[in-house]
Design a protein that fits this description.
By secondary structure, this protein is an alpha+beta fold. The chain folds into 3 domains: about 100 residues, RNA polymerase II/Efflux pump adaptor protein, barrel-sandwich hybrid domain (OB fold (Dihydrolipoamide Acetyltransferase, E2P), Beta Barrel), CATH 2.40.50.100; about 60 residues, Dihydrolipoamide Transferase; about 210 residues, 2-Layer Sandwich (Chloramphenicol Acetyltransferase), CATH 3.30.559.10. The protein is built from 10 helices and 19 strands. The strands form 5 sheets. Strands 9, 12, 15, 16, 17, 18 and 19 form a 7-stranded mixed β-sheet that branches. Helix 7 crosses helix 8 and helix 7 crosses helix 9. It is globular, with a radius of gyration of 25 Å. The termini are far apart.
């Protein structure tokens, strides 16, 4: 008999929800065949079979919350085992099970039936909008909302889509940041002339030598690392009544995906070269788009950069990524007339926004940080000489 247990879920993550069982008791199971999926706040964790055999008892039903190393099910090794190479296709029964729409969690359906709750009134947090036990509990505990008046003719032209668990997590964390931190934003602008010239001059050679394109993010990462060394409180966080200062820079780089915003982390960015940073950004960006980021790759960030400019944003106030105390917002590069040495010249300008937790960072520190970033970007030679 082999126990199937909850695997390690990642740093500071202690529980998950059983989302889907792909096997039922008595089903034949191949080595590495997926038995079930667990959902945490950010990622879906697949639980493969360690051995070939026959599915035994399922201990944790769909919708149940389980802790790390909790018993999920048992498997009888060897009996009715199925051969499966690593590249083999899943068994037809398993494929059909994974492909079809899965019903709401049994525990959730039981509570809804007992309390007379209409499933249409419950926002499911499981995969594909599946209703979980905790979703029903929230509806049962909350007062009935007053529906906004609307015309019947409007209702038929509306589409109601259940929020994914990721979208609900994003919404919750953003609101928590606003409710918890004393958030304030300071602004500046940067002349991108020197960086654009440097990038234009060396981009072909950079690509040929390092196999990755030279983008703007490595410059901004380096500039932020430079500024964080001078203003360490922007790289700190509050823990109870303590302030924890980080003697490293784990740079979060916000990335938009089809399912929502994620923030993969470049660990020890302060120890990396331009090429290393660009390679890591390309790697993590590809994983983000494909939904392949692991929990570990999205944890441990100490500061974040968000680039709304790729979508055309001219100016915005980014929201902190808790428990971090600072986030830099990049924006669209736009040619604007600037007064320089008594003359009006056209320059490629970008607005910068630093949102910070005023509980940790004073106004002087925030402004100093943003000025140092601006100086480093307008004269990239400063980055080479640590000035």
């Amino acid at each position: 008999m082999t126990d199937i247990r909850v695997p390690t879920l990642g740093e500071s993550v202690t529980e998950a929800t059983v989302a889907t069982w792909f096997k039922k008791p008595g089903d034949a199971v191949a080595v590495d065949e997926m038995l079930c999926e667990l959902e945490t706040d950010k990622v879906t964790v697949e639980v493969p079979s360690p051995v070939a055999g026959v599915m035994g008892e399922i201990v944790a039903a769909e919708g149940e919350t389980v802790g790390v190393d909790a018993l999920l099910a048992t498997l009888v090794a060897g009996e009715g085992a199925v051969a499966a190479a690593p590249t083999a296709s899943p068994a037809p029964a398993a494929a059909a099970t994974a492909a079809k729409d899965v019903e709401d969690a049994p525990s959730a359906k039981k509570i809804m039936a007992e309390k007379g709750i209409d499933p249409a009134s419950v926002q499911g947090s499981g995969r594909d909008g599946r209703i979980m036990k905790e979703d029903v509990a929230k509806v049962a505990a909350a007062p009935a909302p007053v529906a906004a008046p609307r015309l019947a003719t409007d209702a038929v032209r509306e589409e109601r889509v259940k929020m994914t668990r990721l979208r609900q997590t994003i919404a919750r964390r953003l609101k928590e940041a606003q409710n918890t931190a004393a958030m304030l934003t300071t602004y500046n602008e940067v002349d991108m002339t020197e960086i654009m010239a440097l990038r234009s001059e060396y981009k072909d050679l950079f690509l040929k030598k390092h196999g990755v394109k030279l983008g703007f993010m490595s410059f901004f990462t380096k500039a932020c690392v430079h500024a964080l060394h001078e203003v360490p409180e922007v790289n700190a966080e509050i823990d109870g009544t303590d302030i924890v200062y980080k003697n490293y820079v784990n740079m979060g780089v916000a990335a938009g995906t089809p399912t929502g915003l994620v923030v993969p982390v470049i660990r020890d960015a302060d120890q990396m070269s331009f090429a290393d940073i660009e390679k890591k950004i390309a790697e993590l960006g590809g994983k983000a788009r494909d939904g392949k980021l692991s929990m570990a790759e999205m944890q441990g960030g100490s500061f974040t950069i968000s680039n709304g400019g790729v979508y055309g944003s001219l100016m915005s106030s980014p929201i902190l990524n808790p428990p971090q105390s600072g986030i830099l917002g990049m924006h669209k590069i736009q040619e604007r007339p600037m007064a320089m040495n008594g003359e009006v010249v056209i320059r490629p300008m970008m607005y910068l926004a630093l949102s910070y937790d005023h509980r940790v960072v004073d106004g002087k520190g925030a402004v100093t940080f943003l000025v140092r970033v601006k100086e480093a970007l307008e004269d990239p030679r400063r980055l080479l000489m640590d000035l």
